[in-house]
Amino acid sequence: MNYRQSLGSATFVGLVLCASFTVARGAQVTVTANPGSGNWASTSTWNGGVVPDNSAGTTYNVNIDGGNPVFSGAGIGMNGTPQSFTVDYVTIDAGDRLGLTAFNEVGQNGAAATLTVNNGMTNNGTVTFSGNNTLQKIVLGPNTSVLGAGTFIAPQNGAFASIATTGGNLTIGAHTNFITTFSGDLSVRAAGILDFAGAATSQSSIMGLFGSIVKNTGVIAAQGGFGQMSVGFSSGTFENWGFTSVDARDRFNVSANMIMEDGSVAEVKLGSTTGVSFDGYYKVTGDVDLSSSNDTLMLTKRANFNSSLNFLVMTYSGSLSGTFDHVTDGFALDYSTPGQIYARAVPEPSTMLGIVAIATIARRRRAR
Predict the structure, then answer these.
(1) What does the pLDDT read at residue 231?
(2) What tens digit of pLDDT does each residue of 71-92 get?
(3) Average pLDDT value for residue range 110-126
(4) Is residue 121 scored above 50 in pLDDT?
(5) Domain-by-domain residue ranges, the chain?
(6) Quick check: 163 and 190 in contact, CB under 8 A?
(7) Could you give the CA distance from residue 254 to residue 355 in angstroms, rounded to a whole number?
(8) d(CA 190, CA 232)
(9) Gap between the Cα atoms of 64 and 74, Å rounded
(10) Count of Cβ atoms closer than 10 Å to residue 234 Cβ
(11) 231-239 own/partner pairs: CB under 8 Å, 24+ apart
């Protein structure tokens, strides 16, 4: 055997192996969840047996479950023990689920379930948050998007959930839904601008949408009784280009200057009481700008509507510019009290004509 030839061949093979190793260390790998439910940390949850967690130059795109018609679910969280993973992108298919759960055992604290997603995510299924006074977090990289027609839900007591960027802006797609129920707590937070085109509903619970500017082109609602929707950072701006709603026993807090833009609608559902803590109004800590040319205050009567009341529909701590261009027929607005806007029911024109006609007939009869 030629020693030099053998040495050369060995050197070549060694270079190839080194090159292959370097590619592996710098690779981006797509991992797909297996059918059924499993913990994110378990190799049996993933096709190929690789747990997706960025490290040593290898990054992961995660599919739950890559178009498989059979249900797949991956869960992050262990009782009393923090659990955290980092990946580049997550895609959740319709009918599939990602769960973040954190429970403390008796005498324990500090459990948390955290998923860091560097480049955003697409959710066409369901993301659930649950726990007992613990944290469940999705951390997004700067200037990322959450897309898809799926739902993020914090459904119970003790679910303190957050979806937040580490910097920059956050875009929420037009069909993405966020729901809190039964005292769940969920915040969606951008360090910069939160461009919100989805649907957010707090049902007897707490939800927050935060950013230096919160731009709503979707639907944001507080409903179900004793729920709170909070929007905006202090000294920031809430631009409403879409639809907002507050039910008769809920509160819509705006911790920023509020601008009703052209074509926007703010709804208030009116019931049997007004003026107490959770009696269906917008509480704005800042200025209110109603100077656009086509904004609307929609007033909806609930079954227990009390027509004799002057309903408080908005308070503001700063200044007021302009008035609502449109208001629901049968109501008049009163802006005369600084810092407050009231609505009251008034007879509609057809009703007034009937009253005038009756009064005229009565006068004629008396004249006879």
Answers:
(1) 96
(2) 999 999 876 678 999 999 999 9
(3) 92
(4) yes
(5) 27-367
(6) no
(7) 41
(8) 10
(9) 8
(10) 9
(11) 231/255, 231/256, 232/256, 232/258, 232/286, 234/285, 234/286, 235/286, 236/211, 236/212, 237/212, 237/213, 238/213, 238/214, 239/213, 239/214, 239/215
**In which residue are the tokens 């998007």 written?**
145
Cβ(329)–Cβ(348) below 8 Å: yes
Query: DSSP label at 34?
Result: P
Give the helix/strand (H/E) hosting 145. strand 144-147
Residue closest to 200 by CA, chosen among 240, 236, 233, 165:
240
Give CA–CA dist 201/339, Å, rounded.
Answer: 26
CA 111, distance to chain mean position in Å, is 24
Distance of alpha carbon 304 from alpha carbon 273, whole angstroms: 9
Q: What angle do CA 229, 230, 236 make, to 5 degrees?
A: 150
Q: Are strands 243-246 and 219-223 parallel, antiparallel or unpaired?
A: parallel
Q: What is the pLDDT of residues 237-289, one digit of tens each?
A: 999 999 999 999 899 999 999 999 999 999 999 988 876 666 789 999 999 99
d(CA 347, CA 332): 10
Q: Which amino acid is at 343?
A: A
Which of the pair, 307 or 18, is modelled with greater confidence?
Answer: 307
Q: In the structure encoding, which two tokens stand for residue 355, read together?
A: 């009253």
Tokens of 193: 């601008």
The CA distance from 54 to 317, in Å, is 47
Instruction: Tell me how far apart the 2 most distant CA atoms of the chain are, in Å.
Output: 137
Residue type, 83: Q
**How far is 211 from 252, CA to CA, in rounded Å?**
16
Per DSSP, the residues of 292-351 read: SSS-EEEEEE-TT--TTSEEEEEEESS-EEE--SEE-TTEEEE--STTEEEEEE---HHH
Share of the chain above pLDDT 90, in %: 66
Span between the terminal Cα atoms of the chain, in Å: 137
Structure tokens at 177: 């839904």
